[in-house]
Amino acid sequence: MDKNDKRTNTRRLLLRGAVAIGALSAARILTLPDTDTPKAPVGRNGAAHAAKPHPAAPAPPARGTLPVQAPDTYRLRPLAGEPSPWYPDTPPPHAEVAFTVPTRTREIALTFDDGPEPSFTPQVLRVLRSHDVRATFFVLGECAVAFPEQLHAIVGDGHIVANHSWTHPQFTTLAPGRVRSELGRTSDLIEKTLGSPPTLARAPYGDWDRASLRICNELGMSPVNWSIDSLDWTSPGADRIARNIMSEMKPGAIVLSHDGGGDRSQTVAALEWYLPRLLDEGYTPIRVEY
């Protein structure tokens, strides 16, 4: 395991007790009232709770420095419920966190976080391409600015590029201005690179609170989490990753995997195994679109 993988595992183990997604509930989404001041993170059961780091884990190392800066003024809108002023046909963002995709068939969504990067992102794209499957990539700004060609490769294959912050901080520990900077700066980069802003965002660790959800909506994005954690970030082996996914699979599932943040060779090997089997079982992977 390389240093990047150890760092990724440390930061995720730190927060797993507070923000891990448990068994998928019957409800698809979590509805939260709009407010300016709450501090507690929001769990999938709708209750506010305090983030409790794993007692044995050190504080997560900073992935980089990011000065607090306001995004361009046009990014302060739309507010939730308003159409996008720069893309009038874009529907207003959802205020609720999505854990599944709405479907009456065997549709599912494969999502990949923490990229792009020049080694494993192309390998994930190759596997998806070989099965004519589409997915959603939640990218980090600090990676996207280093490898813009990978953003073009993602959309060139018909996938969606979404926002995963700039440096992967825990939103519930940040002042609102810093959250806005993390999301706004990444959205600005994606739009500058690809020509249109992202309409979806995923908080690092899936850890939203009401303030960060409000900011996400104000920047024109709907929040998305997941219902199946592949646990590939723990490097348990390709077989274990595949079993984690297949054992929990059901229509509407959103699967969390990673194409960045460390050595993702196990993720690629698992994808090569489970994807054709999902297709054989009648599942149709789709992009997350709200």
TrEMBL record:
SUPFAM superfamilies: Glycoside hydrolase/deacetylase. Keywords: Hydrolase, Metal-binding. GO terms for molecular function: hydrolase activity, acting on carbon-nitrogen (but not peptide) bonds; metal ion binding. GO terms for cellular component: membrane. It comes from the Bacteria. The keyword Metal-binding applies. CDD domains: CE4_NodB_like_6s_7s. Residues 106-286 form the NodB homology domain. GO terms for biological process: carbohydrate metabolic process. PANTHER family: CHITIN DEACETYLASE 1-RELATED, GLYCOSYL TRANSFERASE-RELATED. This is Polysaccharide deacetylase family protein. It comes from Streptomyces kasugaensis.
